[in-house]
Write a structure and sequence with these properties.
The complex is a heterodimer of chains A (182) and B (125).
Chain A lengths: L6 H22 L3 H21 L3 H25 L12 H18 L11 H4 L1 H13 L4 H9 L1 H22 L7
Helix pairs in contact in A: 1-2, 2-3, 6-7, 7-8
Chain B lengths: L2 H27 L3 H23 L20 H31 L4 H14 L1
Helix pairs in contact in B: 1-2, 2-3
The chains are: A mainly alpha (182), B mainly alpha (125).
């Protein structure tokens, strides 16, 4: 059987390999400043992968929130704390054992999943196709992601806003200096 | 099916699992709290990949309706992951704020050093 390598799949695989390499860097490097910069690069690469996976809205959010705001937050935390990680005290044997065990089970699980890029999977023929078909008549918004986010799953977005609000209050309570009375 | 096709069909899942395990390893093995939080972020992005990969259709376009285009990728995972990204940054912010407070209270962000300090305080009482 002849092997046809799809260009989209190839770009996707190259980007994913780079992503894996950066992750190795994040694990090994002990200077936290370098780790934060690597995490920023990781987020941008992840945004590129998302573009290849046709998730353009998600890619934009990941580039601005994941690579932008997260990096700024982490850098501010470094400014307020320490920038060097202490050398490890214990051997990594037990964590490695746990991780490899989990990995073996997960790899076994992938054999039950549909192959990459197929159109006839239950996920792509069911709910997703339904949204694509009904969207324009019901909402008039050409961007299906926007219309699902704002119209069909509006309560989800409300919940998300509540989570951000709660987190904001939490950060304020933690970092604000309360003046002692008397 | 040839071996190359087999690799292409599963490569996304393998990398997703690799990222997931890297995140798990950082969370379990590293004692530095900021590093742990960043590892948690890696773990989280691997879940984004897990959701987005099966929704991709090779030869499809982003789900923005346009005349003359027939095949669109699945929009539903994109919606779910948009929510997840924003919630993720909220938890990261809260976690980092906690780390800053812990550093003020104990003078260190290494988990095992803090455990040692707490033990010593318990014995002193």
């Amino acid at each position: 059987m002849e092997t046809v390598i799809n260009m989209e799949a190839l770009i996707n695989m190259v980007l994913l390999t780079l992503l894996a390499l950066i992750t190795l860097g994040i694990i090994r490097v002990r200077n936290l400043f370098a780790v934060v910069v690597l995490t920023g690069a990781y987020s941008f690469l992840m945004a590129s992968v998302m573009i290849v996976l046709d998730a353009v809205d998600v890619a934009m959010t990941e580039a601005s929130v994941g690579a932008g705001i997260s990096t700024v937050l982490a850098l501010s935390a470094l400014y307020l704390t320490k920038t060097e990680e202490a050398p490890p005290r214990y051997t990594a044997a037990l964590p490695l054992f746990v991780v490899i065990g989990t990995g073996a089970v997960l790899i076994y699980g992938t054999y039950g999943l549909p192959h990459f890029g197929m159109a006839d999977t239950p996920m792509n023929t069911g709910v997703g196709a339904d949204y694509l078909a009904r969207n324009y008549q019901e909402t008039g918004v050409p961007n299906v992601v926007t219309s699902v986010l704002a119209s069909y799953r509006g309560f989800d977005t409300l919940g998300e806003t509540t989570v951000i609000f709660t987190a904001g209050i939490g950060v304020l309570l933690l970092l604000k200096r309360f003046r002692q009375e008397g | 099916m040839s071996i190359v096709n087999e690799i292409i069909a599963n490569y996304n899942y393998w990398i997703t699992i690799f990222l997931m395990l890297s995140g798990l390893y950082i969370v379990v093995a590293k004692s530095n709290m900021i590093k742990t939080l960043l590892g948690l972020a890696v773990f989280q992005t691997s879940v984004y990949l897990l959701y987005l990969s099966p929704g991709k259709i090779l030869g499809g376009t982003p789900p923005i309706l346009e005349k003359g285009i027939e095949v669109y990728s699945n929009p539903l995972p994109h919606v779910l992951i948009l929510t997840a990204i924003v919630v993720g940054v909220a938890t990261l912010a809260l976690g980092l704020a906690l780390v800053v407070r812990i550093n003020e209270a104990y003078g260190t962000i290494e988990e095992d050093e803090i455990t040692a300090i707490v033990d010593r305080e318990d014995h002193a009482e």
